[in-house]
Write a structure and sequence with these properties.
The protein has 120 residues and is an alpha/beta fold. Helix content is 39%, strand content 23%. The protein is built from five helices and seven strands; from the N terminus they run E-H-E-H-E-E-E-H-E-H-E-H. The strands form two sheets. The chain has a five-stranded parallel beta sheet with strand order 2-1-3-6-7, sandwiched between helices. Strands 4-5 form a two-stranded antiparallel sheet. The N and C termini lie close together (9 Å).
Length: 120
């Protein structure tokens, strides 16, 4: 990383997975705020600005795509996380460029590469 702490909003409904990923990101010097629902994510984003949002596509009965669509191009840098491939028609809601999608379990080097490119 470039020395500046990266502020990350991690939106993940699986609490254990969220805490594990948050600890990993913090070990790389990032500051991580957790949200487990769409409502929590929106509230946290009203309280402070984030450089990056890691958003799980499937949030129980909710969709992380709704958050990503609302913030796309005007909010934090978005990376979508999913346990399965995101259908092309789901990604049509985004203007180019669509946010990157990482399949869980995520490859840490891929995520770090995205963060590094975003910060430079």
């Amino acid at each position: 990383m470039n020395g500046r702490p990266v502020s990350v909003l991690l939106v993940e409904d699986d609490i254990d997975s969220a805490e594990e990923l948050a600890e990993l990101l913090e070990s790389y010097g990032m500051t991580v705020t957790l949200a487990h629902t769409v409502g929590q994510a929106l509230e946290k984003a009203r309280q402070r600005q984030f450089a990056m949002a890691l958003i799980d596509v499937g949030l129980g009965d909710e969709s992380g795509l709704d958050i990503a669509e609302a913030w796309h191009g005007s909010g934090p840098y978005i990376v979508l996380l999913t346990g399965s491939a995101v259908a092309e028609e789901q990604m049509c809601r985004f203007a180019d460029p669509a946010p990157p999608v990482l399949i869980k379990p995520i490859e840490v080097s891929q995520l770090l590469g995205l963060i590094e490119r975003q910060q430079s």
